[in-house]
Amino acid sequence: MMNLKDKIVLITGASSGIGAACAEIFAEAGAKLILVARRQDRLEEIGRELKEKYSCQSHLIRLDVRDRDQVAATFASLPPEWCAVDVLINNAGLSRGLDKLYQGNIDDWEEMIDTNVKGLLYVTRSLVPGMVARDRGHIVNIGSIAGHQTYPGGNVYCGSKAAVRSISEGLKQDLLGTAIRVTSIDPGMVETEFSQVRFHGDSDRAQQVYQNLTPLTAYDIAEVIFFCVTRPAHVNISEMLLVPTDQATATLVHRRT
Ligand code: NDP
Ligand code: 8X3
Fold first, then answer.
1. Is 135 left (phi over 0), alpha (psi -120 to 50) or beta?
2. Which ligand is nearest to the CA of 191?
3. Pocket of ligand 2 contains residue 145 by CB under 6 Å
4. Which of 151, 157, 210, 219 is catalytic?
5. Atom 2 of ligand 2 has which residue's CA nearest to it?
6. Does the Cβ of 156 fall within 6 Å of ligand 2?
7. Domain-by-domain residue ranges, the chain?
8. For the residues of 47-73, what is the DSSP string, one character each?
């Protein structure tokens, strides 16, 4: 198993859900963490907790991944002791709305495409050249079951995650001949702040998504990411689709009544 002691792991969207769970599991393994999100207070709380529990060193970055210039400037000026990123977890992302396409809110579309697709690309473009120069690294992109199966009302979100899937595949092909690995992790239902964000803070509607079934937890996903990252260097897990036992497809779920 690959040793993560003092490896530098950069996680976007580290302020909640899957990203925060990744921070925990990699901190426990002795990695140094660069934690990226817009909510600085959350990052500070997580950084403090991980320091207390695991003596984890973290470098916190308040950043909106949609801001192309800021992404480039931030990663071009990482402190020298933080710039050799070993693992990049492109996790920042969101869904907005579940409207029929012809009734969709165009601002919601812009936000999803700008974050899930363009933001992921900006971060990747900033950090992967260093990995290539060092001939070392692993990029983990968080896709979704939504990138495999489009569901009613999913339209633009599903399209953004299908794009992530293609981008992961393209990146893997373009890195062939280097030692760098690319993994796409594609979860089904995970209970995080995801549905709160999708429904613009409508908690009742968000809770209904997970009602009477057992969803995946953020930690379930973090464990799988950790497994992929810690395989021996010659093993690249290209793609993993994970669903709760209560979910068969994007729309076919079993709810206990
Ligand atoms: P959460 O809403 O709990 O977490 C999303 C994270 O992304 C937050 O830390 C948020 O931080 C960050 N983020 C969002 N927009 C930006 C931005 N513009 N710049 C920087 N950070 C941003 O949801 P999840 O943990 O569930 O989501 C993580 C990923 O997993 C997403 O890509 C999502 O699409 C994917 N996914 C989720 C599934 C689920 O069922 N939950 C299933 C399949 C995939 P902040 O607001 O502080 O910036
Ligand atoms: C999140 C999974 O199917 O709820 O990407 O959109 S889904």
1. left
2. 1
3. yes
4. 157
5. 188
6. no
7. 8-189+218-242
8. HHHHHHHH---EEEEE--TT-HHHHHH
Residue 145 CA to ligand 2 center (angstroms) comes to: 6
Which of 38, 30, 132, 42 shows the shortest CA–CA distance to 88? 132
Q: In ligand 1, which atom is closest to the CA atom of 195?
A: 41
Q: What is the pLDDT of residue 240?
A: 98
Ligand 1 centroid, distance to 52 Cα (angstroms): 25
Ligand 2 centroid to Cα of residue 118, in Å, is: 19
Between the alpha carbon of residue 218 and those of residues 172, 200, 251, the distances in Å are 25, 20, 20
Helices vs. strands in the chain: H and E counts, helices first? 9, 7
Query: Given this model, what pLDDT does residue 2 score?
Result: 78
Give the model's pLDDT for residue 257: 85
Tell how far the Cα of 23 is from the centroid of ligand 2, in angstroms.
Answer: 22
Q: Which helix (H) or strand (E) covers residue 181, if one does?
A: strand 181-187
Structure confidence at residue 66 (pLDDT): 99
Beta-carbon count within 10 A of 173 CB: 9
Q: Which of 27, 134, 45, 135 is nearest to 89 (CA)?
A: 27
157 part of the active site: yes
Residues (pLDDT < 70) of the chain are none
Architecture of domain 8-189+218-242: 3-Layer(aba) Sandwich (3.40)
For the whole model, what pTM was predicted?
Answer: 0.98
Residue 209 alpha carbon, nearest atom of ligand 2: 4
- CA–CA distance, 9 with 127 (Å, rounded to integer): 12
Residues 107 and 111: their CA atoms lie apart, in Å, by 6
